[in-house]
Design goal:
The protein is of the alpha+beta class. It has one domain (10-141). Helix content is 27%, strand content 21%. It is built from five helices and six strands; from the N terminus they run βαααββααβββ. It has helices at 20-27, 41-50, 55-60, 79-83, 88-97; strands spanning 10-15, 62-64, 69-73, 104-109, 113-116, 135-141. Strands 3-4-1-6 form a four-stranded antiparallel beta sheet, with helices on both faces. The radius of gyration is 17 Å and the shape is globular. The two termini are 25 Å apart.
């Protein structure tokens, strides 16, 4: 993630997970162990087709760069998240939206979302991120004014 006090646009999601392990398995890419060296080409191809799995990307339905996803536990909030937000008004929005018993927050840098998996058309995203079965969408912060 960018240096502290470097403001970048990001989408913020919040969820309730049993523990950090469950949250990490959701937020980050997961890789199965590679097939044994003596496995055939078909086994290796099947492994490549299944990997990585990434529940966050699957639920959001966007093409994303995994290097720009950050998981933050509720113990680190709200001071840490507020430090990433330039606008006092957006910091206040965060305080209002983040008080509902979430265990974790997931930040996705806005520029790391580069396409909509649910759209046939190419080019810029055709839709904004939204809540999913596992996450509440809390909004975009530090975005460009409309």
């Amino acid at each position: 993630m960018p240096e502290h006090n470097t403001y970048y646009a990001f989408h913020l999601f919040a969820g309730r997970f049993a523990d950090n392990t469950e949250a990490e398995r959701f937020a980050f890419e997961q890789w199965e162990a590679e097939p044994a060296p003596d496995s055939g080409a078909a086994d290796y191809q099947a492994w490549e087709d299944r990997n990585p799995s990434w529940r966050l990307k699957q639920e959001l339905g966007f093409y994303m760069d995994s290097d720009f996803v950050e998981l933050v536990s509720s113990q680190e909030c709200p001071q840490y998240l507020e430090s990433l937000i330039h606008s006092d008004a957006e910091q206040q929005q965060l305080r209002c939206r983040a008080q509902t018993g979430y265990s974790h927050f997931i930040l996705v840098a806005s520029e790391s979302i580069y396409g909509d998996q649910r759209s046939d058309s190419s080019g810029p995203n055709q839709r904004k991120p939204s809540s999913t079965p596992s996450l509440d969408y809390l909004g975009e912060f530090n975005g460009c004014p409309a």
